[in-house]
């Protein structure tokens, strides 16, 4: 079932190739704020937020979630910044995971404005955003993470860098001397494969992790100091397979990492000294698996070139395995699935499809497979990337 957002858009087609997938790169005017407004208020925790990443004006689209998992558009909020597109990118303009952050403890939503070199923070109440604040965050911010009062932003420009912010007083402020360069090679091309992929805290907040994709194929681990700053340099760990991209943590604090070069997922133990210990690698045989989300104990990987979602499980011992025999396919999507997010109750999964300009909705079954609930269309041309669910 397709449901159109019914927003005005103008499209510009330019054919490019990503991991064997030919698609159209689209650009469009931002969604009109207030074009549709939900009639009834919802309880806190039943919302999904999507970042348009439009280069003409980035916006956050707020949706309410029904008890059945279907979404209804509520409102569009301006970030007062511009989206961006990495050179060579097709369905994933920011070429990253985690470009939109929801921190339920601080009731905070943070968006990156890659074209403006800024981040925007909002206060969250249910599906309503308020208290908009904009801060500089480097040249090309693409990913953001938080732990407690600490927020770190990944800058994909040049050598690559991370920079810290403090949220102790209900507003973000830069942490002095927190910027750390990643030492990447800015001359490598194409850009979308050689910019860093994601920044994220370890579950205990003692370490900050960055994936470098094809610019070294490393997993960098910084130590986090008591004052919120980082070690002078990271521990640089080679990934088991090339192009480490997105990651999450399992229930035991192990890294679950997508590696696009081998079309696989690898699991790693994370040691206190910043080194990682390889536990397992399992390929799904699909194309361009880059984004991963943990939902209800399952691990779902978006395969941008195959238009499907692979499902994994991770044993208590850290070994990953596919949930089905056919490459672990848990469900199929519209063209070019990228960022994805699960509801906090573990019952639903939402997937941005950059090739189709749509938002696909799924319910999570007891065996980890997915049942389609429909798709919200009308996002073609905004360059969507970044999604969170509460």
Structure characterization notes:
The protein has 390 residues and is mainly β. The chain has a single domain, classed as YVTN repeat-like/Quinoprotein amine dehydrogenase (Methylamine Dehydrogenase, Chain H). 1% of the residues lie in helices and 47% in strands. The strands form eight sheets. It has a five-stranded mixed sheet, with no helix packed on it. Strands 11, 12, 13, 14 and 15 form a five-stranded antiparallel sheet that branches. A hairpin with a 2-residue loop joins strand 2 and strand 3. It is globular and about 50 Å long. It starts with a strand and ends with a strand.
Q: Residue ranges: pLDDT <50 for 5 or more in a row?
A: 4-44
Helix content estimate: under 10%
Described by the principal axes of the CA atoms, the overall outline is globular
Estimated share of beta-strand residues: over 45%
Structural class: mainly beta
């Amino acid at each position: 079932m397709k449901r159109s957002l019914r927003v005005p858009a103008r499209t510009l087609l330019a054919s490019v190739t990503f991991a064997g997938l030919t698609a159209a790169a689209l650009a469009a005017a931002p969604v009109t704020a207030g074009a549709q407004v939900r009639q009834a208020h919802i309880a806190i925790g039943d919302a999904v937020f999507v970042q348009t990443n439009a280069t003409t004006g980035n916006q956050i689209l707020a949706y309410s979630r029904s008890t059945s998992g279907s979404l209804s558009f509520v409102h569009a909020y301006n970030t007062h910044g511009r989206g961006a597109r990495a050179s060579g990118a097709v369905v994933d303009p920011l070429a990253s995971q985690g470009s939109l952050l929801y921190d339920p403890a601080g009731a905070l939503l943070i968006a990156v404005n890659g074209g403006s070199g800024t981040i925007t923070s909002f206060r969250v109440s249910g599906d309503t955003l308020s208290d908009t604040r904009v801060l500089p965050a480097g040249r090309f911010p693409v990913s953001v993470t938080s732990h407690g009062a600490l927020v770190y932003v990944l800058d994909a420009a040049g050598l690559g860098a991370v920079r810290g912010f403090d949220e102790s007083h209900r507003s973000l402020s830069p942490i002095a001397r927190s910027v750390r360069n990643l030492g990447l090679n800015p001359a490598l091309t194409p850009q979308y494969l050689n910019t860093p992929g994601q920044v994220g805290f370890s579950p205990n907040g003692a370490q900050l992790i960055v994936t470098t994709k094809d610019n070294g194929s490393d997993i960098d681990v910084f130590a986090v100091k008591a004052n919120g700053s980082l070690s002078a340099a990271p521990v640089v760990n080679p990934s088991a397979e090339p192009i480490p991209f997105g990651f999450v943590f399992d229930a035991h604090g192990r890294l679950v990492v997508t590696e696009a070069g081998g079309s696989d997922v690898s699991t790693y133990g994370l040691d206190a000294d910043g080194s990682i210990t390889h536990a397992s690698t399992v390929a799904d045989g699909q194309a361009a698996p880059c984004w991963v989300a943990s939902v209800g104990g399952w691990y779902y990987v978006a395969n941008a070139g195959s238009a499907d979602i692979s499902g994994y499980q991770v044993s208590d011992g850290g070994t990953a395995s596919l949930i089905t025999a056919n490459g672990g396919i848990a469900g199929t999507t519209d063209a070019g699935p990228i960022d994805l997010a699960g509801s906090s109750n573990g019952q639903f999964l939402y997937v941005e499809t950059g090739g189709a300009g749509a938002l696909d909705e799924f319910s999570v079954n007891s065996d980890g497979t997915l049942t389609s609930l429909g798709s919200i269309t009308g996002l073609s041309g905004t360059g969507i990337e970044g999604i969170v669910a509460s």
